[in-house]
Amino acid sequence: MVFNPLSGCYEAALDTRAFADGEVNLNVTATDLAGHVSSSSTPFKIDNTACAPVVTYPRDGNVVWGEVQVTAEVSDVHLDRTEYCVDGNGWNDLGAARDTTLLRDGEHTLAVRALDRAGHKTSVFLTIVVDNGAPSGRILRPLPGEFLEGRVAVEALAQDSVGVAEVELNVYRLEGDNLTLVEVLPMAPSGEGRHEVELACDELPDFTYALELTVKDAAGHVFRTGAVPVNVDNHAPGLRVLCSSPGAVLSGEVALEAEALDEGGVFLGALSCSIDGSDWTPLGSPWNTSACADGPHLVVVRAEDGRAMPPSGARA
Ligand SMILES: [Ca+2]
Ligand SMILES: [Ca+2]
Ligand SMILES: [Ca+2]
User: Fold this and answer.
1) How far apart are the CA of 43 and the centre of ligand 1, in A?
2) CB under 8 Å to 176, separation ≥6 — which residues?
3) 313 CA distance to ligand 3 centroid (A)?
4) How many other β-carbons are positioned within 10 Å of the β-carbon of residue 93?
5) How far away, in angstroms, is 44 Cα from ligand 2 center?
6) How far is the CA of 54 from the centre of ligand 1 (A)?
7) pLDDT, tens digit, for every residue of 155-197?
8) What is the pLDDT of residues 65-99, one digit of tens each?
9) 40: which of 11, 118, 152, 179 lies 20 to 30 Å off by Cα?
10) Which residues span the domain enclosing 180?
11) Cβ contact 135:223 at 8 Å
12) Please, are residues 138 and 156 in contact by the beta-carbon 8 Å criterion?
């Protein structure tokens, strides 16, 4: 060591970078001309390395909701503290949970910084996506109570302030108030929030069903519409005239009777008849043939189901 007359001290430069970070002892020994020796030891800390925080949650681009606990790993022998900050609005201790419901849904900047006792400070920045709002949606078509047959395009609107992750159509068989799940169909986006799927009504027994839309967002929030009832009817009713046969000779008062059946037996409407092209009247009232001229007449009996399928007729 070299004596500095200005400071009155012996001095020597010490390059701490030659030592590992940590606690060290500095020993100084002084020897006089007579050979007397005196020494002293001074502990001190060396820290040449800045902290490097690694954020373990949330990760860059993660969708978060509710209360979030930011976690990070920091390796530093003289770590002072680790803090985080959202959108530059004040630093919080890493142990303090963040209530994301106080933030608007969407992208935010999360900064995490670690400080050591040597004054090193390192920050990392990442983007988080806050999503606390539930999605919404509705079935655009078919309409409630609509009669369906064959292959039907079901169209729905699904929306979320951040993003829709999944849209499904639940198909239930509807008996009274009882819903029995028949199938779940994933719906594909078709632009501007619209989603579509083809419903194979021709593979379903004729009956009343209920359609329900399920919309999920990336945060796992689920929205369900109410059940929309629809009627699947793929078959026109069948009809058999009981009172007469084609070409029969009739006289006096004739009771026109017929038997109608509809697939599933659920959508059969009233029977009606028309004589010689007259207006349709309910079947059941007797036909007084004496009011008609002798000779051939055309009797058409009609059965309708709820969908008002093209009539199935029988003639006499
Ligand atoms: Ca350090
Ligand atoms: Ca949402
Ligand atoms: Ca039918």
Assistant:
1) 17
2) none
3) 14
4) 10
5) 53
6) 15
7) 999 999 999 999 999 999 999 889 999 999 999 999 999 999 9
8) 999 999 999 999 999 999 999 999 999 999 899 99
9) 118
10) 136-232
11) yes
12) yes
